[in-house]
Amino acid sequence: xxxxxxxxxxxxxxxxxxxxxxxxxxxxxxxxxxxxxxxxxxxxxxxxxxxxxxxxxxxxxxxxxxxxxxxxxxxxxxxxxxxxxxxxxxxxxxxxxxxxxxxxxxxxxxxxxxxxxxxxxxxxxxxxxxxxxxxxxxxxxxxxxxxxxxxxxxxxxxxxxxxxxxxxxxxxxxxxxxxxxxxxxxxxxxxxxxxxxxxxxxxxxxxxxxxxxxxxxxxxxxxxxxxxxxxxxxx
Length: 235
What we know:
The protein has eight helices and two strands. The protein is mainly alpha-helical. It has one domain. It has a two-stranded antiparallel sheet. A hairpin with a 5-residue loop joins strand 1 and strand 2. Helix 1 (2-23) packs antiparallel against helix 7 (160-212). The protein is elongated.
């Protein structure tokens, strides 16, 4: 649940940043740049804290087969976006003018890191169930856009804030959808695991009862019955 809350908060910060950039595309607004840096910084810190907490409790949930054997534990994905958000947030807050100069490089790097993180989450989510092709489209598109912007920043520098705003909006929406989908798959897997464990417990109890009271042949049962209890009817 904490990972879901962290992902939704990160997505919400991304959406807010996107809306601000679309509404105020003038890159000379220093306060807007610093506000964006604070949002990135908070988002990254929360992502790192959530990763640390999830890593501590990673052994509490495991995936088992029908016999109860452990297949794989649940390890959280490394917070690439969280680290990138912290670094970017500090840069924007401490040196807002540098953001304008290196805007397109920062934009490309963040899109690449964000899309790679989403792909890692989707790959990890395949352990819990099948993932539709729709969920893979946005991360791949964002990855391609980030590479193009990072490789050719001069060709994309005409409307940097608008491009960044739309990309942040897309990332925020897809991050929310993917997080809810992964959380649902995890809950479904946990329910199946609990049902499997209950079935194994019932099977073990039935086996113990059968071992304590084994079925006896009819002859042995008759021999154990007292002769006084046997009634013989005369014709």
